[in-house]
């Protein structure tokens, strides 16, 4: 039984896990050996919009349970949403198998990351679950071991375990953690891809496979750092309007987050933040605005 320093067992752990965006997302050809997934070269950056996953120990044999809280649950709220397919539950089962534990754990997810938004909300919840169980079950596995488990669940899940910045290659699952002093990050920071930001979020969701399929048809927009941007805008034009409004209002950078539809606008000053907020509200080109900053990292709390 794991201890929390005063000799008692740990019974509840919560993890605040940040969302993900891609400061660059270069997309190559689909590869048959990767099940048709495209070759990527991307700079991941964690954004300070957090989901909180709480994992509590249940009685032996009680099985798992899942509870979702939050005002914006997207398609997770529908009764048809299969709990067993939730990415946090998939992570629980993967960790249970890898560590020979029974999945007798209650999971509670407080969702704040927009769903189906291109911000890896599902991957963040899976990563939070992995980090929580590493403490709840007293595994204390190194990050590399946890990333091996995460990589079996999705391309951007290994990155979500560490946050900060990373270069992703392969189909996005090969991760090289980047320090903020690395040349890549220093160059992007110089171009304004760091610090204070606004997220333009939508009720609508985009399906990642559909965005990649559209990319295969129309390719990347000239000069776009995110090669999926033109495809996402063709499927969800309001995101393109939000980018134009943000840049006009003084955002240093504004772009689609990953496969979209959400838009990230870096706003380095109070004036820029106020101007972008007002331009988005007046043009009604976004449904919700979330103020945040980047980079960010997961935070683990031992509750009981
Ligand atoms: C686009 C990115 C950018 O980081 O993230 P999101 O914006 O969705 O968060 C990722 O590539 C999302 O990767 P991942 O999270 O694995 O996508 P999944 O939803 O699991 O993949 C669903 C489908 O997307 C397509 N896909 C995904 C990754 C990739 N490198 N090439 C692809 O073509 C494939 O059709 C795949 O079957
Ligand atoms: N815990 C979760 N949080 C969000 N989405 C989830 C979760 N578990 C499963 N999903 C499913 O994954 C899909 C993609 O969600 P998400 O990861 O938020 O978006 P994206 O892949 O665009 O970053 C959603 O449509 C949802 O049905």
Description:
This protein is an alpha+beta fold. The protein has two domains: about 10-180 and about 295-300, 2-Layer Sandwich (Ribosomal Protein S5, domain 2), CATH 3.30.230.10; about 190-295, Alpha-Beta Plaits (2-Layer Sandwich), CATH 3.30.70.890. The protein has helices at about 85-100, 120-135, 145-150, 155-160, 185-190, 210-220, 230-235, 235-250, 270-285, and strands spanning about 10-30, 35-55, 65-70, 105-110, 165-170, 175-180, 195-200, 255, 265, 290-295, 300. The strands form two sheets. Strands 1, 2, 3, 4, 5, 6 and 11 form a seven-stranded mixed β-sheet that branches. Strands 8-9-7-10 form a four-stranded antiparallel β-sheet. It is globular. The mean pLDDT is about 95. 4-diphosphocytidyl-2-C-methyl-D-erythritol 2-phosphate (SUD) binds near residues 25 and 120. Adenosine-5'-diphosphate binds next to helix 1 and helix 2. Pathway: Isoprenoid biosynthesis; isopentenyl diphosphate biosynthesis via DXP pathway; isopentenyl diphosphate from 1-deoxy-D-xylulose 5-phosphate: step 3/6. It holds the Pfam family GHMP_kinases_N. InterPro entries: GHMP_kinase_C_dom, GHMP_kinase_C_sf, GHMP_kinase_N_dom, IspE, Ribosomal_Su5_D2-typ_SF, Ribsml_uS5_D2-typ_fold_subgr. It catalyses: 4-CDP-2-C-methyl-D-erythritol + ATP = 4-CDP-2-C-methyl-D-erythritol 2-phosphate + ADP + H(+).
Provide a concise account of the structure shown:
The protein is α+β, with helices and mostly antiparallel strands and 304 residues long. It has helices at residues 87-99, 121-136, 143-151, 157-160, 183-190, 208-218, 229-235, 237-249, 270-283, and strands at 12-31, 37-57, 65-69, 105-110, 165-169, 174-178, 195-201, 253-256, 263-266, 288-294, 299-302. It is globular.
């Amino acid at each position: 039984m794991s201890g929390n320093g005063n000799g008692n067992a740990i019974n509840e752990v919560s993890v605040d896990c940040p969302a993900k965006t891609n400061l660059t997302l270069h997309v190559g050809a689909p590869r048959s050996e990767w099940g048709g997934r495209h070759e990527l070269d991307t700079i991941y950056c964690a954004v300070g919009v957090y989901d909180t996953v709480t994992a509590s120990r249940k009685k032996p044999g009680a099985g798992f349970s899942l509870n979702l809280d939050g005002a914006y649950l997207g398609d997770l709220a529908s009764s048809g949403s299969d709990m067993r397919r939730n990415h946090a539950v998939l992570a629980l089962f993967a960790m249970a198998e890898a560590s020979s534990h029974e999945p007798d754990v209650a999971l509670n997810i407080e969702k704040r990351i927009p769903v189906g938004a291109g911000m890896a909300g599902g991957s963040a919840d899976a990563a939070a679950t992995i980090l929580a169980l590493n403490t709840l079950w007293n595994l204390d596995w190194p990050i590399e071991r946890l990333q091996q488990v995460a990589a079996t669940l999705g391309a951007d899940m290994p990155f979500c375990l560490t946050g900060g910045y990373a270069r992703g290659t392969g189909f996005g699952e090969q991760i090289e953690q980047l320090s903020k002093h690395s040349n890549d990050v220093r160059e992007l920071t110089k171009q304004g891809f760091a610090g204070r930001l606004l997220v333009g979020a939508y009720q609508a969701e985009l399906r990642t496979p559909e965005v990649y399929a559209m990319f295969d048809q129309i390719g990347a927009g000239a000069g776009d750092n995110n090669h999926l941007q033109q495809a996402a805008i063709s499927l969800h034009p309001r995101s393109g309007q939000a980018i134009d409004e943000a840049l006009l209002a003084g955002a240093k950078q504004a772009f689609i987050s990953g496969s979209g539809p959400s838009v990230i606008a870096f706003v380095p000053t109070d004036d820029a933040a106020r101007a972008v907020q007002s331009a988005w509200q007046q043009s009604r080109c976004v449904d919700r605005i979330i103020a945040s900053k980047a980079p960010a990292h997961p935070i683990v709390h031992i509750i009981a």
